[in-house]
Amino acid sequence: MSRTNFIERTLNRFARAMAKALVSERTAAKPGLLQALDPRVRLIGLLVLVISVILCRRLEAIAALWLLAVVIAIASRVSMATLALRVWLLVFVFTGLIAFPAIFLTPGDAILSFANLSASAQGLRTAALLILRVETAATLTTILVLCTPWTHILKSLRNLGVPVEVIAILAMTHRYIFLLVDTASQMFEARQSRAIGRVNTSEQRNLTSRTAGVLLGKSIELSHEVYAAMVSRGFRGEVRLLTDFRMRFRDYCALAIFFCAAGFAVWMGR
Q1: I need a surface site. Which of 67, 116, 190, 235 has the fewest CB within 10 A?
Q2: Residue 242 per-residue DSSP state
Q3: CA distance 116 to 62
Q4: Band of the pLDDT at 3, cuts 50, 70, 90?
Q5: Structural domain count, the chain
Q6: Between residues 64 and 15, which one has the greater pLDDT?
């Protein structure tokens, strides 16, 4: 395997990571259902729905909340392909691996026997409940992130009483992740422009370890510079925007609908 192929794959992964962030920014700028609401209403409403998903015990109620999340996503002009690839498929694979043993370990009415193992109807329902619950909660939170700029989420959290230290950590982490990805992309691009010939597996490992070490040193130095630059410009953890949040009649109506839907789902899912 050539060094060029290795670096190209790394660059492509960095490019995909940046493209996902751009998709989120473009979705938040589109005219849609959630985009027309106050960011605080989006945050509270979708988190209330997530809490209702956690409290529901019936598969039918959680499925109804999942359908509601899909309807909200469509009305907010969120790409179904994005949800399918970034949420539904990944959640199904990882949660399915965790829930799969419950099909055979949960006692109940056997529906399928294989060797010394028997799958029960109760185990199948338990696994489906776990997968659907995680799918629905992940869908709702992803919709919130896609339809709301990160700075608006931070300001909404601050307005709801989240400590300023938590806001500062979230703001710095979000900003620094993209800064780190951009730095790593530049390093690999510089390495690619100087790559000649083929390298063996051991040299590839050495290249990776050296690059990781240099990137770690750069990240530590850069973190101090970024923090000093933000402090010198008056950053104290408070999120300040040019536009102020303002509740309107439709925001109050939407908030009431969110709470009614969540309460009805919890009542039906008892």
Answers
A1: 116
A2: S
A3: 33
A4: very low
A5: 2
A6: 64
Q: In the block, which residue shows the tokens 């490019």?
A: 15
Residue 32: both structure tokens together: 């849609």
Q: Give me 106's structure tokens.
A: 């949960």
Q: Are residues 266 and 136 in the same domain?
A: yes
- Other C-beta atoms within 10 Å of 228: how many? 10
> How much is the pLDDT for 21?
60
Q: Is 229 exposed, middle or buried (0-12, 13-18, 19+ CB in 10 A)?
A: exposed
φ/ψ bin of 149: left (φ > 0), alpha (ψ from -120 to 50), beta (otherwise): beta
Contact 77, 31 (CB under 8 A): yes
Verify that 9 and 50 share a domain, yes or no: no
Q: What is the pLDDT of residues 153-182, one digit of tens each?
A: 888 888 888 887 788 788 777 777 777 777
CA trace torsion 150, 155, 160, 164 (10° rounding): 100
DSSP label of 230? H
Category of 77 on φ-ψ map: left (φ > 0), alpha (ψ -120 to 50) or beta: left
Dmax (CA) of the chain: 68
Q: List, as own/partner pairs, every contact residues 206-210 make where C-beta atoms lie below 8 angstroms and the sequence separation is at least 24, other chains included.
A: 207/3, 207/6
Separation of first and last alpha carbons in the chain: 56
116: which 2 tokens?
């010394």
Angle at CA of residue 28, ends 151 and 13, nearest 5°: 85
Residue in the structure block whose two tokens are 């900003």: 175
For residue 23, what pLDDT band results from cuts at 50, 70 and 90? low
**80 and 8 within one domain:** no
The boundaries of the domain holding residue 204 are 1-30+149-239
Quick one: which of 239, 250, 45 has its CA closest to 153? 239
Task: Quote the tokens at residue 240.
Answer: 């300040």
219 plus 229 within the same structural domain: yes
CB 137 within 8 A of CB 153: no
